[in-house]
Amino acid sequence: MQSQNNSSNMQVSDEVVINIKDMNKWYGNFHVLKDINLTVNRGERIVVCGPSGSGKSTLIRCINRLEVHQQGLIDVDGIELTNDVKNIDAIRREVGMVFQHFNLFPHLTVLENCTLAPIWVKKMPKKEAEEVAMQYLERVRIPEQASKFPGQLSGGQQQRVAIARSLCMSPKIMLFDEPTSALDPEMIKEVLDVMIELAKEGMTMICVTHEMGFAKTVANRVIFMDEGQIIEENEPNEFFDNPQSDRTKLFLSQILAH
Amino acid sequence: MAINEYSGVVNAGDLPDKPAPMRTEGIVAWIRDNLFNGVFNSVLSLVALAFLLYTIPPALNWLVFSANWTGGADACRANPDAACWPFVTARWEQFLYGFYEKSERWRIDILLAILAFGIVWLAIEKMPLKKYMAIFMLVIFPVLAFYMMFGTESALKGIDSTLAAHAASGEFAPLDPLRKLLRIPFAAADLKTVETSQWGGFTLTLVIALSGIVASLPLGVLLALGRRSKMKIISLLSTIFIEFWRGIPLVAVLFMATIMFPLFLPKGVHFDQLLRAVIGVALFASAYMAEVVRGGLQAIDKGQYEGSMALGLPYTKMMRLIIMPQALKIVIPGIVNTFIGLFKDTTLVLIIALFDLLGIVQASIADPNWSIKSVPYTGYAFVAIVFWICCYAMAIYSRRIEEKLHTGHKR
Ligand SMILES: Nc1ncnc2c1ncn2[C@@H]1O[C@H](COP(=O)(O)OP(=O)(O)OP(=O)(O)O)[C@@H](O)[C@H]1O
Ligand SMILES: [Mg+2]
Q: Which residue, A253, B303, B332, B363, is the most exposed by fewest CB within 10 angstroms?
């Protein structure tokens, strides 16, 4: 992985794809997300970091409505997230998500995992869905595993299948929730490489991760969260070299310490 | 870095694969390793062995070696201390068909042949068109079986009288073309009515058990989903339904179906006795099934729901394609357990005067021509063997399905 920031050669357009305004969320009486304001432009690669329990997962899960926010506005690609099921379905078709524990479907083969949503959600003919799936499996470099079941693959391979599965829906935005934290060190790179390629192709990405190397290489913006708030937001070089708030400094010193 | 005397060992990593070591070197080693590997285990093995030696040979002797295989009641009377199989061979038709009219028994033969054919087809691994066969067996066969067993006579009469009434009044009925279409196969088959009160024997056992099995799984799935529903009313109603049926004994259900239920029907409305029993058994089994399925649903990781939702799958497709297949796979042993229980519970219809296999055997035992000491034992042994074969077949089938659905190791 290159250590120097090469995000300059990736294009960011000025079209807004995600707009979060004064968003608040509670779990019961527990205020998890406080006054979140965030706009994401097409082509941006945003890394979200922060201590455990700070609400990073909750934030990105609100974007595809896996969690429901109670106050404020979330607008994805011009569609506002409300209780309207049609809007939710429309947004989920445009937003792909990759999870820490892959969440592959263990009873289906790798290929079936990838073709399921195109066939049943997009009504794509099976043949075509399989062709598309094979293309993406090639891009994540595991076409030879297509007929295996997820349980027969390594963690890194499974996560790459999960990425391919999301890509098969041709999403406009990809959300990653700690995609490498359940992986052994030697598998982290293979997954990050795929993500870096994706970024280079101009995919809009929001990625919760503690891989600071990835943040420096790929991100054009780093967001630091603590206790449900966005504390600091900056471009990576500034963020790492010149953190503003004390909490950010503390957090950075802790994760760089080991 | 200081120069070290010790130079590291580097392995080229090209050792050839060796065959796995044999775990046992023959039967003696196996016995030693598995039955006599320790004092406690040895004692246990000896006790078990003694018990088997004490029980198996006399049982086999009674059932097989000194049993009466030929002759009639007289032969059995002469040798009353062994099984009397002529009793079964003399009565097997009744055991199989009950009181079903003799001239019409070919109808049951055809159905049994189709049933056996279908089951074998579905049980063989590499059979083609399994999906269509399953749909045929689950949807078309029950309808076919009903009309073949009950006859088409009364259905035909009903259609004809409706058509005649419409023709007489000149009334336009949109369903009449459909009635005319249905009339064709009914008229062609022209099977005379055999009232359900004449059904009996193993046929009746199969009718009740298979209806219960076919109805209880989908009902149970719906109830399980209902009980876990976020809509409180649906969840409450499902829970009440399940707990009601689970809370009362099947015998009470059957009594209620026969004695109490008719009291609530308007006068003159006839509701078939057998149908009531079948519904009772099916609802009873579906309550158990619901809890089995719910157990499977609970074992599914939240991530499976999230993975499906993130891909944009709507609820019904998520359930049908992702959650249910996994949940049902987990609880196959529980499902088959419920089926086996249901199969054996059908014998309880005896108390509402329906003569299933056990009922008919029991009635035959009372025949004075066969009042021989060994006959009741033989009859019950026969029933036990038939039931055991059916239940064990289900157990084997379930194990095969489990093996087939196994997809790699779990995380
Ligand atoms: N379903 C829930 N019900 C109640 N509280 C929850 C729920 N999910 C998360 N929380 C709480 O909300 C807070 C934020 O959780 P979240 O998962 O967003 O944190 P995170 O920043 O992703 O942490 P981590 O780095 O450990 O993944 C935590 O304190 C957590 O305990
Ligand atoms: Mg998290």
A: A253
CB B42 within 8 A of CB B31: no
For residue B207, which of B146, B153, B283, B253 has the smallest C-alpha distance?
B146
CA of A55 to the centre of ligand 1 (A): 6
Task: Give me the long-range contacts of B108-113 (CB less than 8 A, separation at least 24).
Answer: B108/B148, B108/B149, B108/B203, B110/B148, B111/B144, B111/B145, B111/B148, B111/B149, B112/B203
The reported pLDDT for the residue numbered B14 is 76
**What residue spans of B228-331 are helical by DSSP H?**
232-247, 250-255, 261-264, 273-298, 302-310, 315-317, 324-330
Nearest chain B Cα distance for residue A248, angstroms: 31
Contacting B residues, span 312-331, partner chain A, CB-CB under 8 Å: 312-314, 317, 321-322, 325-326, 329
User: Is there a contact between B133 and B150 (Cβ–Cβ < 8 Å)?
Assistant: no
Angle, helices B332-345 vs B273-298, to 10°: value is 160
* Higher-scoring residue by pLDDT: A2, A46: A46
For the whole prediction, is pTM greater than 0.80? yes
Inter-chain CB pairs, A–B, below 8 Å: 77
Residues of B with Cβ-Cβ distance to A95 under 8 angstroms: 310
Alpha carbon distance B311, B60 (integer Å): 61
Tokens for A51, please give them.
Answer: 């201590």
Q: Whose CA is nearest to atom 13 of ligand 1?
A: A53
Per residue in B311-320, pLDDT (tens digit) is 999 999 999 9
The DSSP call for residue A55 is S
Q: Give the CA diameter of chain A.
A: 55
Q: State the DSSP string of B194-236.
A: --GGGB-HHHHHHHHHHHHHHHHHHHHHHHHHHHT-SSHHHHH
Rounded to an integer, what distance in angstroms lies between the CA atom of residue B41 and that of residue B35?
A: 6
CB contact under 8 Å between B303 and A103, yes or no, is: yes
Substitution site in A33, A49, A58 for ligand 1 pocket (most atoms within 8 Å of beta carbon): A58
How many CB atoms within 10 Å of residue B392? 11
- Domains of chain B (ranges, CATH numbers): 21-65 (no CATH), 66-100+195-411 (1.10.3720.10), 152-190 (no CATH)
10 Å CB burial of residue B235 (0-12, 13-18, 19+) is middle
Q: Tell if the CB–CB gap between B326 and A166 is shorter than 8 Å.
A: no
Cα–Cα distance, B84 to B201 (Å, whole number): 20
Is the CA virtual torsion A76, A78, A84, A86 positive or negative? Answer: negative
Q: Does A249 touch chain B (CB under 8 A)?
A: no
Are residues B312 and A117, on separate chains, in Cβ contact within 8 Å?
Answer: yes
Any A CB within 8 A of B307 CB: yes
Query: Could you report the per-residue pLDDT of A69-92, keeping only the tens digit for each?
Result: 999 999 999 999 988 888 999 999
